[in-house]
Design the sequence.
């Protein structure tokens, strides 16, 4: 079965929950108000594509290629991004719900997470060098053996990061977020 090639196409209000998106390569395509929940996007190439106001919760991404992909106002609960094709992997998230997602062992340098909820997200052994977490909720997100060098957390909140178990040189944090760096010590910080 041959795979299709689709370029410069807009998909609006499509429901892919019963019939999955056709396998192939999608370049410079826009998916708006589409439902992919619990669907299968495995073995599909997305290059310079945008997903806007889409539900991609629990979607399968086995060997999926995501290059220069933008997610805006999307629901991506429980997505395991580590199953993606790691070659050229690059994406950004703006105003997205990513709770329980996993980026285990991915090299996603320079990734931007903006105005997003990342509760209980797994960043274990992930390379987040130069990433930006702009106004993100990182409640119970896991940063174990994670490279956060030059990563900007200065406007984000609710993180708890063990700096002894991360590579954190030149990472940026806000003064109000210092408590999240000292959680493991069980100390109380009061305003003076």
Sequence:
């Amino acid at each position: 079965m041959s795979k299709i090639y689709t370029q410069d196409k807009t998909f609006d209000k499509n429901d892919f929950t019963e019939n999955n998106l056709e396998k192939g390569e999608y370049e410079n395509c826009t998916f708006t108000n589409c439902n992919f929940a619990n669907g299968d996007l495995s073995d599909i190439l997305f290059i310079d594509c945008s997903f806007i106001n889409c539900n991609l919760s629990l979607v399968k991404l086995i060997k999926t290629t995501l290059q220069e992909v933008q997610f805006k106002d999307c629901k991506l609960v429980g997505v395991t991004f580590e199953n993606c094709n790691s070659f050229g992997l690059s994406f950004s998230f703006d105003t997205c719900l990513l709770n329980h997602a996993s980026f285990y062992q991915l090299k996603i340098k320079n990734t931007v997470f903006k105005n997003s909820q990342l509760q209980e997200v797994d960043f274990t052994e992930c390379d987040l060098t130069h990433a930006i977490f702009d106004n993100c909720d990182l409640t119970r997100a896991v940063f174990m053996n994670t490279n956060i060098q030059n990563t900007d957390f200065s406007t984000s909140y609710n993180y708890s990061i063990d700096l002894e178990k991360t590579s954190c040189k030149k990472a940026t944090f806000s003064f109000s977020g210092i408590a999240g760096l000292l959680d493991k010590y069980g100390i109380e910080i009061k305003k003076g």
